[in-house]
Amino acid sequence: MRGRRLAPFIAVAVALVIAGLFVILAGSKPSEDSAETNLMGKPAPTATGTLMDGASFDLSRRKGDWVVLNFFQSSCIPCQQEHPELQKFVAAQQAQPDGARFYTIAWADDRNAVESFFAKQGGGWPVVLDTKGSIAVAFGVSKVPETWIIDPEGNVRFRTIAEVTADFLGSQLERLREGGGS
Amino acid sequence: MTSWNRALKRWPTWVALVLVVVSFLAVGATRASGPSTPVERAEELEKRVACPTCSGESVYESRATASENIKDRIRLLVDEGQLTDDEIIAQLEVAYTARVLLVPKASGFDALVWVLPVAALVCALAGLGVTFRRWKREAAVDVDPTDDDRELVASALRSESEAPPEERDP
Q1: B70: distance to nearest CA of chain A, Å?
Q2: What's the whole-number mean pLDDT along residues B107-125?
Q3: How many domains would you assign to chain B?
């Protein structure tokens, strides 16, 4: 008898839990927008290293410009596949007076292999040698390719863990420039 | 009775034995069990961090590039000696999100991992308690007839014995 009185309350509680889960899942952002990171909207982590030409690189000194970081390994097939698209994107940005600065972060890769790749495939933008992976760890990168967009204030605004196209990257950058959220 | 048996049965022997056991327990409970060198400290931290590209492995065990990088970072921070263990883990969590924690946190949404099993256990125990109580009540009803039951049977027997012989059951 008592069990019969409790049954509707238990059923309502279970229904509420299921409805809550549905709301949480339905409200979550689709993955094609921006990949999850605790750094979103926050200052980009410290990222220093050496460029392939021997000059030093310090991300914090690039404030004032939109910065695009592309984590890369010369042996990674998706990285090789997206390379022509990155060339298109960089060319488009260089054609603009306030175009974004593009950097490749060569993560845990051999210097000679990176040099050989860029010599063969082209790409005249700066390449940061992150041989010990300190920049990758600071950004939480564990697979490549990954592309990040940092705004002129030095805050992280976008992250994608996938091969990108010039159009996709350009449209994301444009959306952020126009004040769109991540 | 030997002298050894006699000695055992004296109370000072037992008091001494209790003192020795309590001393060992006290020393064992209060002994510092944490890492004693920076290398051990780094290894302890590496065992708390999940390899971001493997399944169920710590960065201590993993040889993946990402894990090796994280190990380098942990060793650097330990050598610098400016951050506590929890601060080092928190720094990695900022970069890699909570998926890098092998042991989930006991706060926020992650706390459900700890709370739900306990809640399920409490509910299960409560359910068992209610069920056992109901069974006991039902069993008591079956075994021990109430006064009303006894009265009902007695009146039935009385009416049967008072009935004329032709109306009784053969």
Answers
A1: 6
A2: 85
A3: 3
